[in-house]
Specification:
Layout: H1 2-25, E1 40-43, E2 46-49, E3 54-59, E4 62-67, H2 73-82, E5 90-92, E6 95-99, H3 105-142, H4 148-181
Antiparallel strand pairs: 1-2, 3-4, 4-6, 5-6
Helix pairs in contact: 1-3, 1-4, 3-4
Length: 183
């Protein structure tokens, strides 16, 4: 019985953690190596995450990508150019410099909108987890494992968890939105 609640809470925590990870890849006014986490590069006949191909560091307003294999530098430049980040890398021998210009107002609003969409997707995931938890509780009731009162109590606790995690998602979004919109 409490295993159902633990499972629901664990899954909801994972949904919040996933949103935070997604937010790391969003561009803000701060230059951050995680900006390139979602960039995939075609090398060796397959799409490979850029972080598997080299080290990424920050130097002032530049990302510095140092490929482990210098022959992949051109492919890395192409991967960054075709990414939705709208960045223009500069290849300097085997090192790639990626200047990150400050965000303009329009781009900041667009990124804030993306952040809101990601938050809404996470809320949908939390609600799906609630539905699965409630279905499990009802199945337990149907099987005679728990009483009607226990079922109602568990459904209420699952709803409280849903409210709690939706609020955490909202708070996470507000912090990220502020970070994005700050000049």
């Amino acid at each position: 019985m409490s295993d159902i609640l633990k499972d629901v809470e664990k899954k909801m925590t994972l949904a919040v953690d996933h949103l935070k990870k997604e937010y790391q890849a969003l561009r803000t006014n701060r230059v951050n190596p995680q900006m390139l986490d979602d960039v995939k590069v075609e090398v060796y006949g397959s799409m490979t995450p850029i972080k598997s191909l080299g080290s990424i560091t920050v130097q002032e307003r530049n990302l510095i990508v140092t490929p482990f294999d210098p022959s992949t530098a051109t492919a890395i430049v192409k991967g960054i150019q075709t990414s939705p980040l709208k960045l223009n890398p500069i290849q300097d021998k085997s090192v790639i410099r990626v200047p990150v210009p400050p965000l303009n107002e329009e781009l900041r609003k667009d990124i804030a909108k993306q952040a809101k969409q990601k938050m809404e997707q996470s809320k949908t995931a939390v609600r799906d987890i609630r539905k699965q938890g409630n279905d499990t509780v009802r199945e337990e009731k149907k099987n005679g494992t728990i009483t009607e009162d226990m079922m109602k109590g568990l459904e209420k606790k699952i709803q409280e968890l849903t409210d709690k995690y939706c609020k955490v998602l909202d708070e996470t979004y507000v912090v990220k939105e502020k970070e994005i919109l700050t000049v």
